[in-house]
Amino acid sequence: DKTNMFPLIQRCCFNTPFKLQKLTGPRLLLYRKNKTTWSSFALRLQRDACPLSTSLSLKPASVYTTKLQAFHTSLSVFKKKTPAEPEAESQKSLESLKDSPKPALYLSLGGLIPFVAMPLAMAIQGTYCPELAFAQVTYGAATASFLGGMRWGFALPENSPAKPDWLNLANGTVPPLLACQALLLKDITQGAVMLMVALGITLHYDISLLPTYPRWFKILRVVGTVVMISSLLATVALKISLEVEQSDDRKIQQN
Fold first, then answer.
1. Using CA atoms, how far apart are residues 68 and 61, in angstroms rounded to an integer?
2. Where are its TM segments located (predicted)?
3. CA atoms of 99 and 109, how far apart (whole Å)
4. What percent of the chain is predicted at pLDDT more than 90?
């Protein structure tokens, strides 16, 4: 019966997508029975299906647009952040270095003069002087011991952020032990290398491992350590190059 089939067909068409309605709805109804008897029924079905198809066709579009918008906004979230420019970082470092107390800044820079003066004097004279090299290593050993003991002075006050535990106090004794070992070595090259290791360890403690110092002091420590290690490397390079030249000159004089 037509009246009984129409609600069933309409319900089926309502639950199916628009493409299946287009293929199975009107064409099957037109070709199953006689065209003349089902023409009115097909018109009614098309009239009922038109608003349904438009709503179904618009609904996925709106869903897809919202998904695209969400995808577009999510891309902006996951964009890689541009790293800070090195110029800006250097400006921040210089500003924090300028903010350091004047006595600490001037005394720290003045303490680097013996490191720089000794290899500079040997380079100007053009001769390697073992006494100057040993004096530089000795002064570096005293500096490394001072930097290690400074951790004790920072951890002992009651209101200090660093606690007087094994980590702070035991690591404060490592640089003096390495500095003593550098003085016991007979070869100046080996002593300078041991001293560079001690200075690098103290810098690692002060910057990353142990409770932090103020920012201006960390930058001051980096600058000072770079200058000290560079001076020791310069002394080792002068020792190697000038000793070779002096040995060649002696061979020439003997011949």
1. 10
2. 104-124, 136-154, 192-213, 219-242
3. 15
4. 40
